Amino acid sequence: MLTLISTIIIMKKIKYSLLKAIDITGLTFLAPVVRLCYGEEPQVQFKKIGQWIIVPLIAVFIALFVIYDGFIVDTFKTKSGKLPTSSKIYSSYKSIDQLHDDEIAKEKAYNLSGEERVEELKVVEEKITSAEKSLEEASKAVEDQTLVSKAETAKDVAPIQAEYDELKESVKAASAARDVEMKLLAESITPGDEAAAQKLLGLVRADDAQDTLDKEKRNLTKEKINLILTKKSPALQKRKAEETYFSERLAFLKTYKTLLSTQNKSLIIDEKKEKIATYEKELASLSGADALKKAKSIVNQESVISKKEESEYAGSKTIWYQVKRSVLCVFTGFFLGSFLAIPIGIFCGLNKTFMAMMTPFIAIFKPVSPIVWLPIILILVMGAFPNPDKHPFMEFLGELPLLGVYKINPAFIASAITVALCSLWATMANTALGVASIDKDHMNVARVLKLGFFARLTKIIIPSSLPLIFAGLRISLGVGWMVLIAAELLSSSEGIGKFVFDEFNNGSSDSLAKMVVVVFIVGIIGLILDRIMVIFQRLVSFEGAPATI
Amino acid sequence: MLKKENSQFVEISNLVKEYPNPYGDDFRVVEDFNLKIKAGEFISLIGHSGCGKSTVLTMLAGLNEISGGGIIVGNKEIDGPAPDRAVVFQAPCLMPWMSAFDNVMLGVKNVYPHVSKQERIQIVEYALSVVGLGDEMKKYPREMSGGMQQRVGIARAIALQPRVLLLDEPFGRLDSLTRMELQDVIIEILAKEKLTAMIVTHDVDEAVFMADRCVMMSNGPKAGVGEILEIDFPRPRNRKEVFDDPNFFACREHLLAFLEQRSHIKGDPRVFANGKTLGFMDKEVVEELRQKHEIV
Question: B60 to chain A nearest CA, in Å?
Fold first, then answer.
């Protein structure tokens, strides 16, 4: 009995803390689900779920599968074919994601050594045999399907072809008959017979017109045939896609194998070490110029080993790595911008003269596009780090525990500064507004209590303007995220923007689908960033706080 | 009882408040306001809305600039706000991001810079327990009712251990029950701390029940002291006793009569006490009053 009661109490506590978390994060559409789970007014909750979950889902469904797949995809054509359908976009997402997993596996394989490597190699070889089998089967299936499809096509084409042939024959015959008629008339004409000449002219004209007409008719039928021939059979396409998938998997497994065997780091190093050992033996029995040569090659091999030991697997950058780097970059820029904007905003709000001083700068620099800032900043940053690989600051950043992986370079710094320059205005304006619009009564209290400047700042001014500051920070982060993608695209800083640009330049058949995937990734990350800021904003706001958006 | 130099603790002389008027002479809200307050005395300031009661109080607090005349508090002319004149505002004006304790501590830290942390905490705890919030120190303003918030406002004022307590319509936004409770709290505090105090109010009962002297202000613009009523019910005052006293009604009637009929008259203050006229200017008015209050 007692445990039952305590369980009920705990369940209730969980419910309330869940509801509170939902309220703070602003994900209010989840509240009716929680309430429904606790059996609270089911009818009301169902109605709310219908309104805030089912209806939006239906809207997305209609937009994606009915309007987009049904109409838009068929209407617009690009150079590389039709627009990608939603299923194509999804499979592109899968392949991007797969690429990421593959790269991680490859890196692991490259660094694997000893017993583990040998075992992994065995596993891979088994996998390769099975993959080869699958590929063979798939190729076979494609061949079969090709035959079937061809037969189907031939069957479809046959009656039209017959019709076409017939038409061709009849037209040919009619044309020959007309030719004979014209020839006869022409021969019967005597010079000076105006009427006969006119008749001949009429005949020739009629013949020409008939020829054009026949040609059009023939072309029309031909087009019908071509249409059937070019139509790809969906079954065949499916088989072909399967074949491509298996061949890609096989290609990956083969690379994986080489990374475990011939290109494996530890293996290469071992090889070199063996070489050195044999060289050393040989050196003992040599003298003169030969000995010097041998010694030199030993040292040479040694330096190769030390380089190899430091080396990392150089694979291609995958989408999630780029996403992480972009998020890191946007936060770097965001913090940089806020670090400038908040103090300046506070002084602007406190002092009208300072505000007047800052106004021209704000007014002129605020509307400047990131596209203008970036090249300028890129040049400045490049100037500051003429030899970035050797620069102590860059080396320091490269050795940082968590950030080192992201290889911060001048392009990254320039992108971050561009983000800062474009995003700081919202925070600055909101901070100034927040500070300037402090409740007069609160300031009167500060005057009566004779608080000093610092106490006023920390105890009254900053806390009371925090909600507005955070509203500004939220806008800034949103702007920064938008600016960053453009900045990365221009500066070729490894990130989502660069991913899009690479795909744009790549121009393969699924590039467009991949770019659409990026649209969703960027959108979802932007949403998450916004939610994070909303949570902060709610946490710092107090009752009666001004303008919590 | 009181030392002689302290007998006129607050002196307000020829006080003027004017606001600039772009289309004519400056707009004078208050003109020639004269008042002397004895140490430990409780003054209530009553008058019609907009007559400048709060203006006078905020000038005394130092929050409002003085356009002319002067205010002396304890032999020193005031210049801006200072913790020796604590103010309780109409709205509690608590910092919503601080607990009740921190709100009171805010001023204490500044007024007693050389006092140890432990002593400061004691001061704050004492002030909060005086207003009856000893158990609710950790609460935030949003968790408190309006009355409790105003109690914190009062605690914040008395924690500064001021010499003058200025109350600017402190109960204006409270319901009548809470208002009565807080009136008693203030009366208790004043009895304990022997503070000089001034309350601005619209409430006639409050003005009579709480104060030693009620200053009636004439209508603005150019408002000044209209009449002054001495109220000498014995202290400590008990609500029931005071309200049952026939003189209470006489005082009340007097204030109402002033507000209804004579508030436009400004002149030398005529002083009345317990319904009896001590000195007067206008014969007719006084005659009328006498008949009304059956003063022989």
Answer: 11
